[in-house]
């Protein structure tokens, strides 16, 4: 079983995938996973002893939400799930992943669009203190009109459990470069021969 923390923007990269998103899921994600698995088993929606094992938690518009992806290992009676989702919508705010992305996040991003959104950021060769690197990356994002992503990134880093996880989060928001790779250099500072 795995519980991943992702960003709402990560959902836009899940084109071709489907799942169930429950909104307003405060508290312990493991309790949500166990409770939903039990509810869907009791309602005979989960079939042949299968259950959701991997979920993703994300914040959007001030609420904590959970994505239950439809993976091959999860056997569902999709008709019963659709009815359950409608019947419990007032309680859980259930949405299909594709519906949520189209109506709340502006649609799925193409691979080209997703890569263009990450600005280059010179971190290689800088002081490796994670707060220093986070500050440089946040400034780069703000300079590129991505203030919301800068805040989201720093919030996720503060909640991360390790240095490596924090570096991975930074890499989700910026293209980490060295001095020679960075496109942030001023045009007037071209190398003199």
Mean pLDDT: 87
User: Which shape, going by the Cα principal axes?
Assistant: elongated
Largest sheet: 5 strands, mixed
Strand line-up of the largest beta sheet: 1-3-4-2-5
Q: What is the CA-CA span between the terminal residues?
A: 57 Å
Portion of residues in helices?
A: 40-55%
Query: Helix segment count?
Result: 9
Please tell me about this protein's structure.
The protein is α/β, with parallel strands linked by helices and 193 residues long. Helices cover 44% and strands 16% of the residues. The chain contains nine helices and seven strands. The protein has a five-stranded mixed β-sheet with strand order 1-3-4-2-5. It has a two-stranded parallel sheet with strand order 6-7. Helix 7 packs antiparallel against helix 8, helix 7 (130-143) packs parallel to helix 9 (163-173) and helix 8 (147-159) runs antiparallel to helix 9 (163-173). The longest helix is centred in the first third of the chain and has 14 residues, at 29-42. The relative contact order is 0.14.
